[in-house]
Amino acid sequence: MVESSEERAESGTQAGNKRARWAEGRELRRVGRLARRIEAFSRRHGGGAEASVLYLGERGARIVLVAANGDWGDLVAPSHALAVRAVERAGVPVHEDLTGELAARMRTGGYEWKRMAGIQIGGHANT
Questions:
Q1: Which residue has the higher pLDDT, 98 or 4?
Q2: Most CB within 10 Å of its CB: which of 9, 25, 90, 103?
Q3: What CA–CA distance (Å, rounded) separates 38 from 125?
């Protein structure tokens, strides 16, 4: 049986629709996973967390979460739009930039200081 061009076009449209639905479902699952992690961070730190979504270029976006007590953490999302959707779904306020009051509230611990020091603290020489 020979398939007509109309039948092939309809078959292609159905396959395209299936791929679009699959991609949309995948995006919704990613948003859900990120939102659950954001909610868990907020609960773990007594609620009141706030977020800032920062571009990482082609890599996506960084979600920086800052709790009321100054503890902070971050997540990476595949796109800025997806990151914003996840933060909004989690019910956490979003700031445009990580500056001012939000940045001042961040408390940096020993782990972060050691990571920022890099080669200066116990690392190999940079030569």
A1: 98
A2: 90
A3: 38
